[in-house]
């Protein structure tokens, strides 16, 4: 294994990513969801469905189901659900922007205090493996489309979308 392969392995197989990838939090169907959406990656073939229960512009609960093939997608989805549960729609969208800036290597996220992104910072070095950014961002991009729809819909109405 050459040095670039070793660096890639160190980035992709960090303990925290593997732990969340093997035993994701908030995995499964949320029966009383009022917003749900299918997210698909044409690049890697991952498929996922995110379920939200939104009330008064706050995310009361979130779950996801996925046939993702890699620990990165599962870990990112799991950690995302942990991070946004209980947030307002606006704060969840802001967190998504900062997270995507982090994995893209944009300066704003690098300057963010560690506590602002919490354990999501484990994905910071994914920028060094560009082919895996799609795996890490699929849940976040699906979530954003859901939050846009949720903020313009009544929370009592079930909204099912496919992207």
What does this structure look like?
The chain is α+β, with helices and mostly antiparallel strands. It has a single domain, classed as Sufe protein. Chain: A (Alpha-Beta Complex), CATH 3.90.1010.10. Helix content is 47%, strand content 17%. It has helices at residues 3-12, 15-22, 71-84, 89-104, 107-111, 114-117, 133-151, and strands at 35-40, 47-55, 58-66, 159-162. A 4-stranded mixed β-sheet has the order 3-2-1-4, covered by helices on one side. Helix 2 packs across helix 3 (71-84), helix 3 (71-84) runs parallel beside helix 7 (133-151) and helix 4 packs antiparallel against helix 7.
Rg (C-alpha, Å) = 15 Å
Counted by DSSP, the helix tally is: 7
Taken from the alpha-carbon principal axes, the silhouette is: globular
| Sequence of strands across the biggest β-sheet | 3-2-1-4
State the low-pLDDT regions, or none: none
Sequence of secondary-structure elements:
HHEEEHHHHHE
CATH architecture annotation name: Alpha-Beta Complex
Name of the CATH first level: Alpha Beta
Count of distinct strands: 4
Measured between the Cα atoms of the first and last residue, the distance is 38 Å
Let me know the largest β-sheet: 4 strands, mixed
- β-strand percent reads 15-25%
Amount of helix: 40-55%
The CATH topology corresponds to Sufe protein. Chain: A
Average of the residue pLDDT scores? 83
Judged by helices, strands and strand pairing, the structural class is alpha+beta
How many distinct domains?
Answer: 1
